[in-house]
Amino acid sequence: MTKTFAPGFEPGQIWRYHHRPGEDQSLLAVLAVRDDEKLGAICSIAIAGVAIANPHVADGIQRHLPHAPISAEVLAGSVIELVATDGPTADHADFAEAYQQWLEPFERREAGVFTITPAEIVSLIEDTVRV
User: How many domains does the chain have?
Assistant: First the structure.
């Protein structure tokens, strides 16, 4: 099932997005959506099909990002095409721990959300893990 972008995000959606060069098969999944009184709509996403240089993984390349909280407004400007609606959600075993590691501090106002594009998030993570 392929749809073009329509406003609104729902858990389980899988999107093509404006990815980094060379990551043409990369997709992002919307794991959860929540409204925040100060920040507005927030989407928790996972990204697959990336190639993050990471010396902390076995072969030096991290191929997915299990969780990143992002402003829904920024995400709306980054997605290209809805490709599925039956993807993983935040309670899926592969993503639940990473989601909870963000959610608990977020609810205490000790964590925030990204206001940069998914491609920029991937690059930022790559720059951070190199250190």
Answer: 1
Task: Name the percent of the chain lying above pLDDT 90.
Answer: 86
Of 95, 73, 77, 93, nearest to 29 (Cα)?
95
Tens digits of residue pLDDT in 47-89: 999 999 999 999 999 999 999 999 999 999 999 999 999 999 9
Question: What is the spatial distance between Cα 26 and Cα 119, in angstroms, rounded to a whole number?
Answer: 10
Helix (H) or strand (E) holding 64: strand 61-71
The parent domain of residue 50 ranges over: 3-129
Whole-number pLDDT of residue 131: 63
pTM for the whole structure: 0.90
Closest residue by Cα to residue 68 from 45, 85, 49: 45
DSSP 43: E
Q: DSSP state, 114?
A: B
Q: Kind of pairing, strands 27-36 and 14-17?
A: antiparallel
Task: Please compute Rg for the chain using Cα positions.
Answer: 14
